[in-house]
Amino acid sequence: RKLCLKRKSINCCRELELTENEINNVNLLREKSAHITKAARSATVANLLAPMLCIPMFKDEVQPINLAIWLGYMLIAVFIRTWMIFQLAHEAEKIIDPQRNLKIMTYAVGIVGFGWGLGWVLMAPDLLMVNRMIYVYMTTAAMISSMFAYSVNTATFFAFTLPIMIPSLSTVLWSVHIFPWPFSVGLASLYIVVLSISKNFAKIFEDSVRLRFCNERLYQELATERDQSIAANQAKSKFIAVASHDLRQPMHAVNVYLELFNLENLPTVEKKSLSKIKGSIHALNAMFDSLLNISKLDADVTQVNHRIFHLYELASTIHDLTEAKATRKGLIFNISHPDFLVRGDKLLLQQIISNLVSNAIQYTESGQVDVCFESEQDCLVIEVSDTGCGIAESEQQHIFNQFYRVDQTRALHDGLGLGLSIVQRLCNLIGADIRVNSTQGRGAKFIVTTPFPLSKSEEGIHAIHSIPKTKDSQRSLQGKYIAVIEDNSILIEAYRQTLANKGAYVQVLSEYESELDEQLLAIDRIDCILSDYRLSQTTGDVLIQKLRDNYNKEIPAIIVTADTSPSHISLFAKLNVQVMHKPISFQDVAAAIEKIVATTDATVPP
Ligand code: ADP
Fold first, then answer.
1. What is the pLDDT of residues 52-63, one digit of tens each?
2. Helix (H, G, I), strand (E, B) or coil at 369
3. Distance between CA atoms of 272 and 279, rounded to whole angstroms?
4. Is 439:575 a contact under the CB 8 Å cutoff?
5. What is the model's pTM?
């Protein structure tokens, strides 16, 4: 395995070297070309105005013929420069031949640099000191700006600066009287500084572009690995689902045959053995149920359906399902509940509480198990407590992980370590919070805080639209109903997890009309729609319109698409749909939903 990893890393390095060459050859040149074209474009106005300004200032001091030659040259040079740059400007987004572009830019800025150098020879010696200083200022300013604009490509930078530097220094040295000598020394030093800064700037630019390419590549590799691991996880779930399905058939037969035995007619030894077999088979059945539940959660087939129900209905179902188990073990079992109506998913809640109660019974040898329904900030809170073995503090952070079992409790119960991870995932699905309070040897208490509103009357429940926000900023979408329309199952799972972690109820909607109509019957509220644009049968905007027609015209919606065409952008703007362009992280999508939902009132059920 070590050898494999080593080989893999060598291959990776080779691959990276290859990409770096590509970066050097093409992408880096492309970046340079884009940078220079952009900088040159933004300096166009200054290039047009500067020679014009020289006319009123210099006309009385310079020989007319020299001024005319210089101006004529400058006008032609600036015109050619502007024309060349704007020819390239439309290519700025997608540079096909960066080498050619850089060559054009080098000529374009070179001829203007030559013009400023020509001015040194033709005009500077005739100018009075003030205007001569102005000319020094203008040419130096041009060079300093070229330091940042053109130095990323050495040829372009020198094509602009050398035609200014050489004539200016020659003029200053030739006619020594035109500046005091310390000034000329200062000018020469300034040129040296310009050259050295530009060299450093070019290096920094190149390094940062390389680093950016490396980061982009790493990001892509990470994204691919993440997709692969999600896909592998799904494959694993599929395997578990198929394997448990195939094993279920013979297990079912064993269950049936076992029921046929009449324990009463058997001798004592066989009776004992058979009871033990029955116990083991019950444990196996429970394990299969856990596997089936986890497969269902992985396969995204678990739907959240909110309905109004009486709390006593839920309490009595839990009582009927679990009381016998508790009394068989000699435990006292209590359920206390106020007389309230609740709006939420009763079945999922029942599954959560049953799992917690059966754990409480399994890990309690004597004493009692209590289930208590309470109201906290108008929302339903459930506490399941027991007087059992408790959970050590160091174990409490692990017990919700898949297949995790505490070593010390293995003897108490045969399980797979899936119960609490199922509970946690169901809690995420309904936007509930679960936490545990326990001291080893002194029992455990699991507290589930749901976003389900409860009240004495139906009107009271409907009045509670904005479910109280938790103090936890991580759960910023607490209680929000987000409809997700997407045809890629990997993305669906990622959206579901990201949004559920923030406390939202995620409804994955089908793009097929009949299925969608059926789903909509069970949904009474949507706070935000998140949709892909190109789906396999239709497009996201059509489905957004349908949902808005069904619920509320104002439901905020976000479309995530790779399509950047202006026609689509204007279509989305017309439909009042926010658009986000791929590639984009799930966290960014969630942040956009948070923002959009925060500014909009929750949609009232029809
Ligand atoms: P399983 O019960 O199949 O081992 P779970 O995911 O339901 O898996 O629980 C994980 C671990 O958490 C268990 O192995 C057990 O040690 C601990 N645990 C869960 N509920 C309780 C409880 N009420 N009291 C003590 N320990 C518990």
1. 999 999 999 999
2. strand
3. 11
4. no
5. 0.49
